[in-house]
Amino acid sequence: MITRIITAIVMLIAVLPIIIFSHTVILPVAISIIAFVSVIEMMKCTGCSHDLWFSIPAALISAVLPIGGWFIKDKKQFILLALVVFYLFFLFILSATVLKRGKQKIVDSCFNFAAVVYVMVGFTSVVLIRCLDMGAYLYLMVFVASCVTDIFAYFTGRLFGRHKLIVEVSPKKTVEGAIGGVVFCSLSFVIYGLCIGRIFDTTPNYIVLALAGIILSVISQFGDLIASLVKRQFGIKDFGKILPGHGGFLDRFDSSIAIAPVMLIFCSFPEFFTLFG
Q1: How far apart are CA 50 and CA 248, in angstroms?
Q2: pTM tops 0.90, yes or no
Q3: Does residue 270 surpass a pLDDT of 90?
């Protein structure tokens, strides 16, 4: 626990400059590095990192995509370009699977593709949210949701947990912990909106904030459970060791990459986009 806390403090200190200068290229570069490492962690987990025909394109795309999302001003054009890249990548790995003459199952190739794209889209969505007009406030909500849900689900579960959530996937998680995570995440969004409103003289929509907190907290917990299921099925404890006490980058951001694309979708609705209007 001490190691975990020390690592968390060091991470917070390292992240502060990125938050302060998030309006500069520092943010997408940092996200690209994290995405690159996370994709490698996922490929090592699924056992496809040794396949250079898959791993090299996957690593390159993961490193380029967040930076591309920052510099390409027309976001619709960027999303269309990303879809084309994903399609070509998918076609390429399926063609490579065919040329292996049955030495690799096509279902494995499809899963590997889905796994790395899931990671890429999650991290790239963070950059796209930051590029929005109110992105300086909105993108942080991705991490507020994941951190608050994780922390309070843990403590609520420890204090009040009686009923196991999904033992086969994550033995320690409880129904009470999951509910506590949702409640406190929703409350944290309202408090976050109150602070932003006071500091920057804006008018938050507290009802939308509370509802968004509930939805994103649920998704956060599913993101955590999905990562746990992947690790369990591939027989590993953590995706990596780069963060002592936490595992790898993917272990730390498994909830965030599930939340970010949904948050980006929310931001396409006027009611949410004007959250701090």
Answers
A1: 19
A2: yes
A3: no
